[in-house]
Amino acid sequence: MEELNTTQWAIMALAAGIVGLSKSGLPGLAILAIPLVAAVVPARMSTGFILPMLIAGDIIGVAYYRRHAEWRYLIRLFPWTVAGVVTGWLSLGHLNDTQIKPLIGGIVLIMLVLNIVRQRTTDLDSRIPHSLGFAAVIGLLAGFTTMVANAAGPIMIIYLLAMSLPPAAFLGTSAWFFLLVNLFKVPFSAQLGLITLSSLKFNALLFPCIALGAWGGVRFARLVPRRVFESLVQILAALGALNLLFG
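-> structure tokens emitted (247 positions)
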């Protein structure tokens, strides 16, 4: 921490604010914080630095939207998500950033295209979102991508949009999902040496920025109509995927 200059502190504060905004108003935006943290902290270690920031944002999101979660959509995901997290943990020893980022970016873009096709095809729109296969694919991808790069936001956006949830239910369901999954990831990240006492102290200093971003996110979510909200989160998912693919 002592080695960071003013610019680096500003970058980390911005990343923390983005995390807070994402968790309470603009889901998917947190993926844009990942390259900011990686610009200050070595790429592999950055996943451990950002995980407690995400958890702090998740706690705020759950505290505000806890009554709006749609648990029936989450229960179907969790077994597959756990399998995806374990797969990602095992893969981290064999994959590097150069391989991981374009892989995830490509997956997200493909999923976004499939989601558009699904929305425009009545038969698919009525069958696919509620099938066990769809939940299994989303759960595995979300677990894998969140473990290797904290980048499951766009995957969950696709799933929750397919469930046609209003903004409050969207945000509440997302908040509970990521809080539970990110807490589940902590022992794996600690075992890999990605979370340390020093990194947690650093995270604590950034909490006010996360809280400020979350406050802005709540106000934003109150004002934006549902159709605009859905369009924005799809755009953010696409931007996040492109950033991983070409960043």
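The chain has one domain: 6-246.
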